[in-house]
Amino acid sequence: MTCVGTHPHAFETLALPTDPGQDATGGSFASFTTHRIQTAPGVNLFVREAGNGEALVLLHGWPQHGLMWHTVAPALAKRFRVIVPDLRGAGNSSIPADGYDKVTMAADIVAVMDALGIRNANIAGYDLGAGVAYALAGGHRERVVRLAVMEFGLAGFGYESFMVPTPDWTDASNWHLGLFTVPDVAIMAFQGRERELLSWFFWHIAHDGEAVSPEHFEAYLRAIQRPGALRAGIMYYASVWQDAADNARLAAVPLDIPVLGIGGAMSGGPYIEQLFRAVATKVAGAVIPKAGHWLGDENPEALAQVLSGFFDAAVPGRA
What we know:
- This protein is α/β, with parallel strands linked by helices.
- The chain is 34% helix and 19% strand.
- The chain has helices at residues 72-76, 102-115, 128-139, 175-179, 183-190, 194-203, 214-224, 229-238, 240-251, 271-276, 295-298, 300-312, and strands at 3-4, 33-40, 43-50, 55-59, 81-85, 121-126, 144-150, 255-264, 280-288.
- The protein has a nine-stranded mixed β-sheet with strand order 1-9-8-7-6-4-5-3-2, with helices on both faces.
- α2 crosses α3 (128-139) and α5 packs across α8.
- The longest helix has 14 residues, at 102-115.
């Protein structure tokens, strides 16, 4: 593993599943306790939970939902109280008409923490979930101990550089970022073609071209075919201008907690660390080998080890 500036414990071995979703003790992601928690009027989130110890909240990206943590979460639950929400508009959570700016979505996570009696937590955000994680850390500073961000650049601080199509096979070739800022057109293009859209997503910037299992592909497909779900996911992207304004306000006071920027070797790589240096003062980086954009599916062993090592450093007696 190519790692820059991670805690030494990042390389301590964790027992991970040989069968996706099942940990070495026989527990599984499917066996996590589930909650349905109201976070705003008319909005409730589906939340999975397992483990004991310091709280660790895992936030997914799109077009995925909490299922993306199916291997990583059981491994981390051996050391932490792991909380895995489906963000609004995704998975089994409510699909409201609005509220997809990252500040509003971060407020949902604060409400989840309050409902579960969690005063503060470690937060890990992947892809667009990293935008939610930053809004949580920047807007509710007393609630976040450490922050890990994966495969994402913040609106106003690098995200826009990825919005222009390129002819290259790189993480910069993301035509959808611009198209999805015009939701009605994007929905017209992909309503009824969700399978084709997901096929492109999970093939694009994957280490070997097969990022998720066929079973999980179908689960993600079912989720975005629900009424309103495609629009909700597109609104995650269309909120970029509001997110940029909110991030500029939050970044006026840089984060002073430890931040770890994580990228896949053939995707964001060390660039994720560099992007977050603009908004935080204590930033380290890690690169996950044999992985493109889809870290939790392509190399869950390496990702779990890096996350465990980073968040272990916040635990008394483990630093």
